[in-house]
Prior knowledge:
- By secondary structure, the chain is an alpha+beta fold.
- About 30% of the residues lie in helices and about 15% in strands.
- The chain folds into two domains: about 1-90 and about 235-415, Beta-lactamase (3-Layer(aba) Sandwich); about 105-230, DD-peptidase/beta-lactamase superfamily (Beta-lactamase).
- A hairpin with a 5-residue loop joins β12 (about 375) and β13 (about 385).
Amino acid sequence: MQSLIRRISFLVLAGATVFAQAAPLPEAAPDEVGMSAERLGRVDAAMRKAVDSGELPGAVVFIARDGQLVYAKSFGWQDREKKIPMSNDSIFRLYSMTKPVVSVAAMILVEEGKLGLQEPVSKYIPEFKNMKVGTESRDADGKAVLSLADAKRQITVQDLLRHTSGLTYGVLGAPNAIKKLYLDAQIFSQKWVLADFAKALAKLPLQSEPGTTWEYSHSTDVLGRVVEVASGQTLDVFLAERIFEPLKMADTAFQVPPGKLNRLAQPMPDVYTGKTPELIDFSKTQTFFAGGHGLVSTAGDYLRFAQMLANGGELDGARILGPRIVEYMTSNHLNAQIDKGSTYLPGPGYGFGLGFATRTDRGQSEWPGSPGDFFWSGYAGTYFWVDPEEELVPVLMTQEPLRRQYYRVLMRNLVYQAIVK
């Protein structure tokens, strides 16, 4: 009887729509895993306030502890214009939460001996063999002058994974002549095929010497092409066969099939400016399997991926990676000599591993966490983290890019305050 009461309490907390679909993990009442149902109610209040204020169109929040789902709820609108409510199986553009998935794909190949972190990227993409590094200066009239010099060493696979390749996105931080070249080349366009994209990118100069600077960049897009060459499969097929199918991530892909478009979450006009954010249009067939930003997924699918990592590379009998490799990936790979620059996204208290920001200190950061926790996020508002010390795996999905950082930090605060044991 007590178990039944707990189950009913969980369903009331999580909302009536929670288990219209199969739960992605076994369910538990919050008190069974040391969390407070009352305190988790503060997540409800915060998300409803965000929707009512117009700051978020809608959101889905899943929280797992000790490998069990303790909170799963959707809020607001999947498509506000069409009056479609958000659902727990709504599909979201992951943007940069694609990066951890592709990083895992690369490490699968490392485990199989088909790829080495120490290897030059040019072994797989020859166009990257003789890269140039750009330096901007000013002439007597104050005009920008771009000088090019041979890179002191080649970009390695490890550089791609930890964002020390010297590549850039071209849009973060102060503009310069190198970033302008990236923008002029339309590198951010969705028109590319991955192989052609990598060749075009290799023609552009590097922002910094490989291995010297953390620069958020197209590194993981290039890594996706490395995975293709090393595996002999296109990236979409490799991810499907080696990660999505074993983990039963049925709604994760580089495409949204016509039959699922009615589940795709949409942005809305910003409550303050009236402008609607431009996001990737998945009503069109995608040709660019971008390893840095191209996937779509659901909160449930991504929770299974994250729980696999929390479990040391295995979930429900499907082993994706060995536990030592997961530990290696989620350790800090930045030494004191690597310049973090002014646009270091992980922030104070964090290093960076192979596809994830990883926490090095209990303090310093502006949000709570534990040493060893690791996370990443996506441009359109998606966010996840894994806290091994607390056996905690939360996932936040929304499609609102303008206030994404505020709601990520808010989610951290609300989740940790709900832990009572």
